[in-house]
Amino acid sequence: MLADAVDGALSAEEQQFTRFVGDAAWYRPITRDAILSWRVRGGVVFSPTVDIASQTGNFIPQEYRFYAGGPNDVRGYERNELGPVVYVVSKREVDEATVEAIRSVTKKPLRMDANEGWKTPEEAVRKINWLEKQGVEFIEQPMPAEMLEEARWVRSKVHIPVIADEACLRAKDIPKLRDSFDGINIKLDKCGGMLEAYRMIQIARSLGMKVMIGCMVSSSCTVTAAAQLSPLVDYADLDGNLLISNDPYTGVTVKNGKLILPNRPGLGLVRNAG
């Protein structure tokens, strides 16, 4: 996200970085109709440390970063220009600098995922109350998932919704989260499928909680399945398929920040060539 705000503000020398990528694949026929395949891809990026808003950090343009999925990835549209909302993933040491940099170039609503990054309730309260003043709409998982009592105290001291992410995996987790969070983030990758996700929506609604549906970095198969449930939720963060170049399917699309469901049977998926 920092790339949006500092692109053009850094010198050409500060924007230089080194990126190594490796890719290997292995295939073995098992029967006439079956092939066992294995593939691994990895890489590393080295970048210089630069000064950003009186703090230091590493600058790597968003489109050149690596995305491994899971709670520590940056899940956003390319340069955050496809939608009306900027989604910020917290990097603990430059939270304020990142938000200030983004605010210097856009007034779009902000949503922030702290990714369990703040380790004390006092730090979380200070950060969240500051973020509210910057126009942040809600905060995801401010502290580690197991710190439910601390999260309960934090919730009592802040004024924007606090959403559980890593603390909420399945429907059975939701009742114990009611006093610590205002809502939950559901991911089909975590809960196991559409039926469990639907159960989670119903339970959260019965407890008066907000509902968000998100995703890992995945193909259009998972993202399109999740998108079928999007009319039932308050927030949808379904863009994991936009971060891969080898998507085997075409399904839900994004137009002007809105999810467009395919008008075809079932999930409406079409297999891509190759």
Present the secondary structure layout.
Layout: H1 2-6, E1 18-31, E2 34-46, E3 49-52, E4 55-58, E5 86-89, H2 95-103, E6 110-113, H3 121-133, E7 136-140, H4 148-157, E8 162-164, E9 183-187, H5 188-191, H6 194-206, E10 210-214, H7 220-227, E11 235-236, E12 249-250, E13 253-255, E14 258-260, E15 270-271
Parallel strand pairs: 5-6, 6-7, 7-8, 8-9, 9-10, 10-11
Antiparallel strand pairs: 1-2, 3-4, 12-15, 13-14
Helix pairs in contact: 3-4
- The proportion of strand residues reads 25-35%
What portion of residues is helical? 10-25%
Q: What is the CATH architecture descriptor?
A: Alpha-Beta Barrel
Q: Could you please say which CATH topology applies here?
A: TIM Barrel
Specify Rg, calculated over alpha carbons.
20 Å
Characterize the overall form. globular
As for the number of domains, it is 1
Report how far apart the termini are.
Answer: 33 Å
Written description of the protein model:
The protein has 274 residues and is of the alpha/beta class. The chain has one domain: Alpha-Beta Barrel (TIM Barrel), CATH 3.20.20. It is 23% helix and 27% strand. Strands 5-6-7-8-9-10-11 form a 7-stranded parallel β-sheet.
